[in-house]
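Tutorial, part two.
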Amino acid sequence: MRYFKYKNLQGFEKNARKEYLKSLSKKEKRIEKWNTFVSYCSIIALLVVGLGLSAVSICALTRIPFPENVFLYIAALIGTALLGLGAVLLSFIIAALVCLLIEKASVKGAHAQRKEALNRATAVLREYYGLGDDYIVTKCYDASNDFKNRDVCIFFAEGELRITVNIVHGFSHISRDLGCYCFNPEEITVSATQENGIIMSVLTCGDTFFRLGKRAKGYIQKHGKDNEK
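Running the prediction step on this input gives:
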C-alpha cells in the first residue's frame, strides 16, 4: 500500500476559479461581479453599523450619573454593564438586518454550467491520480482515515487499485482533496457485510480499511483479476 497527494494547492485554487469564470456568459459574469460587490457591501455595513451603534450606545451609558451610596453604586454599575452588553448585541442584530436587506439586492440562481466548470476544475487531479474512463463512484460509510462518510472514486491504474474522493463531479476547494490510496490486488482482502440493513463491501489492507458501497466488491474482484492477467 502507498499514499500520495497532489501538492500544488495554490495552482488548483486558481485553476478552479478560472474554470468557473470561463463557464459564465457575459450576463452571468456581470451578475457574479455584482454579487461580489453586494457581499463586500454587506460586510462593511455589518462592521460600520454594528460598531457605530455600539460606540454610540456605550458613550450614552457612560454619561449616566452614579449614586454615591456604595450598594446603589454597585447595582447601578452592574445595571449599566448589562445595558451596555444588551446595546452591543442589539446593535449587531440591527446591523445583521441591514446586511439582509443589502443581500436581497444580489441576483440569485446558479448558472447551468457550474457542474461542468467544477468537473473541469478537478481535471488536473484526475490526471495526477491516473483516473481513466473505467471507475465507479460509491459511498464510503466508514474508514480508518478521513474518507469516512464521503463519496469516493474506485479505479485501477498501473496495475494498482486506487481510491480517492469523488473527483469526477468536481469541487473548487483543494481542502476537499484527501489524496490517493493505492493497493496491489494481492495485498487486499474484500468481503461483504451488512449493518443496519445496508450491504457494504469491506476492503482491508493491514490496519487500513474502507467500508464501501455494495458495488465495490464486484468491481474490485472483476477488475483485480483483469489486472493480474
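The longest helix spans residues 26-62. In part three we will examine how such features are distributed along the chain.
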